[in-house]
Amino acid sequence: ELDLRGSRTSAGEFDEALRMLSALEINPQDVVSKVVNLDEIPDAVKELDRYPERYLKINAVFH
């Protein structure tokens, strides 16, 4: 089972994004601007706040 939740400005866009991904209408590599580890999240949020024009999506990975 998978539970997806959004934050910031994308919370209401997950249904459409998942539909587009499953229909191969978009390439995830074109959407994700940066991938960070759990311990990098605070710095990534600060950078996103400081330079929002640089990022479309920042994803956190949990290893």
From TrEMBL:
This is Alcohol dehydrogenase. It comes from the Bacteria. The lineage of its organism: Bacteria, Pseudomonadati, Pseudomonadota, Gammaproteobacteria, Enterobacterales. Gene3D superfamilies: Medium-chain alcohol dehydrogenases, catalytic domain.
